[in-house]
């Protein structure tokens, strides 16, 4: 069994966040709207997971990550509240797009969300001094 350090985990999650947000561009080009929403959410999730882990906060659920992020960063004005709402919106949309039958997002929704998702990831990177 390989042992990874806390920093290994943080670096891995940040790399995943950066890669995943880049994937969204390809999904937009191919008009895969639901997949684009899914990947935007996961890019933000990976970034927030790295942020929390960098402060030795380990969470095992998506809801827990969102809750702890709100508690430690949003309520304490360490992260922009309006931008933070995007994380919740993407979570809800990802869940709906992944699990609701006969539901598809459209181009307008994805094009509106994408710049904000990139900004969200960039803001987490900036907070961590890793931009």
The CATH topology corresponds to: Four Helix Bundle (Hemerythrin (Met), subunit A)
Q: Low-confidence spans: pLDDT under 50, at least 5 residues?
A: none
User: How are helices and strands ordered from N to C?
Assistant: HHHHH
Regarding CATH, which class?
Mainly Alpha
Number of distinct helices? 5
Strand content: under 5%
> What's the rounded overall pLDDT mean?
94
How many strand segments?
Answer: 0
CATH-scheme architecture: Up-down Bundle
Tell me the count of domains: 1
Q: CATH H-level name... which superfamily?
A: Nucleotidyltransferases  domain 2
Global geometry: globular
Structural class: mainly alpha
Roughly how many Å apart are the termini? 32 Å
Question: Helicity level, as a percent range?
Answer: over 70%
Which radius of gyration do the C-alpha atoms yield? Answer: 15 Å
Main sheet specs: none
Topology (SSEs and partners):
Layout: H1 6-29, H2 33-54, H3 62-74, H4 81-99, H5 107-127
What are the salient characteristics of this protein?
single chain; 131 residues; Four Helix Bundle (Hemerythrin (Met), subunit A); 5 helices; 76% helix; 0% strand; globular
């Amino acid at each position: 069994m390989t042992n990874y350090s806390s920093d290994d985990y943080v670096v891995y999650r940040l790399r995943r966040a950066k890669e995943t947000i880049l994937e969204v561009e390809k999904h937009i080009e191919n008009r895969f709207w639901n997949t684009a929403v899914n990947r935007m959410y996961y890019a933000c999730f990976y970034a927030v997971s790295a942020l929390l882990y960098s402060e030795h906060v380990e969470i095992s659920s998506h809801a827990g990550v969102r809750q702890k992020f709100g508690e430690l960063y949003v309520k304490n004005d360490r992260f922009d509240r309006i931008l933070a709402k995007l994380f919740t919106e993407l979570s809800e949309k990802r869940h709906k797009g992944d699990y609701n039958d006969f539901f598809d997002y459209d181009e307008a929704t994805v094009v509106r969300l994408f710049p904000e998702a990139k900004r969200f990831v960039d803001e987490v990177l900036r907070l961590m001094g890793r931009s």
